[in-house]
Amino acid sequence: GTITFTKVTGGIQIVANVTGLEPGEHGLHIFENGSCGASDSITLGAHFNPEKMPHGAPNDSLRHEGDLGNLEAVENTITHVEWTDARLSFTGKYSIIGRSVVIDEGPDDFKTQPYGNSGDHVACGVIGIKKEEVPADTTGTLP
Predict the structure, then answer these.
(1) What is the spatial distance between Cα 42 and Cα 33, in angstroms, rounded to a whole number?
(2) For the sheet containing 100-104, what is the strand order?
């Protein structure tokens, strides 16, 4: 599947379209490091947490910036969710570029420290910048 992050008024819009998850809730987190190649999670580092806050729910005032809540998967369907997170950015201290987004095997309970007791990782992707497509120039001049 894909998880897309787009800058919008009020923060970063997150749109997830994911297939192949077991039915039920799955924790969704952003980790410090952009590394999905290892079989363990050591190379991912911790949840993205520049303010050194406790783990929490996405709407809690005290939470990791990387605490994005849960995805609800239904058998044989595309899991689709979208929302805007005002605490994330593409620049500065709160930048998510180059970090990893991870889906866990179980639900985040939003209270167990430091990671929400959501189990092993079942999917991982590095957050990068998509190259915008330039329309073909039909006149022979550059746009």
Answers:
(1) 10
(2) 67-73, 24-31, 100-104, 121-126
Distance CA 111, CA 100 (A): 22
Output the six-digit token pair for 38.
Answer: 């290892």
User: Can you say how many angstroms the Cα of residue 58 is from the centroid of all Cα atoms in its chain?
Assistant: 12
Question: What pTM was estimated for this model as a whole?
Answer: 0.87
73, two tokens: 């998967």
Contact 71, 85 (CB under 8 A): no
- CB-facing half-sphere around the CA of 39: CA atoms within 13 A: 0
What letter represents residue 21's amino acid? Answer: L
pLDDT tens, residue by residue, 34-70: 988 765 667 899 999 999 999 999 999 999 999 999 9
- In angstroms, the Cα distances linking 31 to 22, 76, 78 are 22, 28, 24
Q: Regarding beta strands 100-104 and 24-31, do their DSSP bridges make them parallel or antiparallel, or are they unpaired? A: antiparallel
Q: In the structure, what pLDDT confidence band is assigned to residue 112 with cuts at 50, 70 and 90?
A: very high
